[in-house]
Amino acid sequence: MSPQPIRYAEIVSGCKIFLMPKKRAQPERKPRADAQRNRERILEVAKEAFTRQGANASLDDIANQAEVGAGTLYRHFPTRDALLEAVYRSEVEKLAAAQRKFSETMPPVEALRAWMLLFVDYIAAKHIIAPALNSMVGGPTRVFESSRHLIQGAIEALVKRAIKSGDIRKDLDAFDLLRALIGVSYVATTEDWQQSARRLVDILITGSRPGK
Fold this sequence. Notes:
Structural class: mainly alpha
Number of strands: 2
Strand order of the largest sheet: 1-2
Largest sheet: 2 strands, antiparallel
CATH superfamily of the largest domain: Tetracycline Repressor, domain 2
Radius of gyration: 25 Å
Order of helices and strands: EEHHHHHHHH
Low-confidence stretches: 5-20
């Protein structure tokens, strides 16, 4: 006979009541390391593919270049929209993480410059992905709105640090730097606009220095 489950007795108004012990809540399992690596590799390859070929890049080619099976790709990203949105969110998260890393490892102005160069890459990814996101239910607004505060918070923290060090003018509006870079991307007529935007980063940094 199988052993009986342990029961705990309670006395209530002279009656004995047997209660089964409560099951412990199972901790939420983290993704396996190899699964996480596969996901990150797919996102990196997808970003490059979407940037080069547009939002209709072949998902099978993305899987091959990421060295995973098509089933693995679809297990992480069931639809093209899911992959596009994940690429976009991944770029935003990289920007936020980069701000913290640059602030810890670089002088204020260098940290600001490095982050702005990274922002140029983000704009390129957004240009490719944004039209496809328009086809999603509710459009891209909910995706963009959820990430805007991360981007704005990152640039504001970097500018504030540079102002505090005396390397940047006190009247500088952090968002003006973003507007300038975004503006270049929207008026660009050639595919090498990113090179122009990177040159503009240095111009903006120079122009943000305190007057002598």
